[in-house]
Here is the input.
Amino acid sequence: MHIRQPKVLHPVDNEDLKLLLLENISSEAVRALQDQGWHVDHFTKSMSEDELVEKIHQYHAIGIRSKTRITERVLKAASRLLTIGCFCIGTNQVDLTTAAKTGIPVFNSPFSNSRSVAELVMSEVIALSRQYFQRAWEMRNGIWNKQSKGCWEVRGKTLGIVGYGHIGSQLSVLAESFGMRVLFHDVINIMPLGQARQVESLQALLEQSDFVTLHIPELPDTFNMISATQLAQMKRGSYLINNARGKVVDIPALVEALKSGRLAGCAIDVFPAEPGSNGSPFDNSLNSWASTLCSLPNVILTPHIGGSTEEAQRMIGDEVSSSLVRYLNFGSTIGAVNFPEVDLRAITAEQRGNVRVCHVHINQPGVLKQVNDVLSPYNVEKQYSDSKGEVAYLMADIADVSPNDINRLKGVISQTKSNILTRLLA
Ligand SMILES: NC(=O)c1ccc[n+]([C@@H]2O[C@H](COP(=O)([O-])OP(=O)(O)OC[C@H]3O[C@@H](n4cnc5c(N)ncnc54)[C@H](O)[C@@H]3O)[C@@H](O)[C@H]2O)c1
Here is the structure.
């Protein structure tokens, strides 16, 4: 069977692409980008706004983590910048609106640590059930306290998952392999994995579960979603686990439920206010209830490490570097956080004269007509356009373009009055 090979596309401007990677991005990601033949400058530290303003004009792409801030001032100085890769989960450090208006898609890796979180939750289910976290702490304080009272196997117990998305569904599979019964509650109907069962309400889940674990996003709807009323609906002697976001649990109400014995324990990885850096104190100055929570038995507190593993870091490197390659070489914006998501199927190696037009423009009437007038002498093999807010993005593959025509086409489309950025790939 003949398998059609995709053609490797390149920007038609004869300028070698130069990338700046900051904040010690994984060596695999650096290699993947160098393998494209691109010049990659990589540094372990971040750069200040002033340093970036001075240096950014040389680069076509930048890769950062959470410490580097890409402000409007930096973007104004970034005359060649085509794309930004956030090698992390969040993108708050980038002025996303200005980036979009300048034609710069921003990519991140929101789900690369789902498995890491699910595994941590499984470990917490067992640690709480066997109280071994508390026993280990006693041993370190010179206390031998062997006991089985109040310690349980997890086999046959019910795990209630609130939010059956990337993490909740992974966890569902792990919990069943431990012999647990899995219930879940979600705002949308989702096909259960294995023997898991979706229940109709949060209350129904709370009333039936031995362990309740939260995997919902932080939204106005989920603020203090678990408060005194919900804690009172939980089974006496059950456990609560929160690896989602700090504000979804009303912690003073949780403290009361632990003190009264309604809950037998909890594991908390995320807090309404979290210290900004390692070594900073976690005390009442940050959250007024911190010392009380820390003093209660069978409470596992961890410093937001749910997704912090070597594997997750590697996955982030793979995912974001692939997004940068797909955008720079093929124009695809799938996965961009601030941009319309547009992609076209590959041009094949046989289609030698084909050229891909990538046209970012202001989202206003008449643009497609104008561009298609320019493209009308050619056969447009495929075309796709989408918009997000004030920015729209059109991709079109046109056939049999002579090499002499490529620069002329680019020039004409770039001159249209809605043009933000036009690139041609061939
Ligand atoms: N502790 C950590 O280090 C860590 C790491 C990664 C993610 N997280 C957090 O975990 C949470 C879940 O992440 P994910 O990747 O599984 O998200 P996701 O978007 O894949 O899934 C979230 C699910 O919650 C559901 N949902 C939304 N509102 C709901 C509500 N009011 N009631 C019930 N269900 C609701 C959604 O329909 C969706 O199915 C997020 O808050 C994320 O920020 C924490």
About this structure: Residues 342-426 form a domain with the Alpha-Beta Plaits fold (CATH 3.30.70.260). The first strand starts at residue 18 and ends at 21.
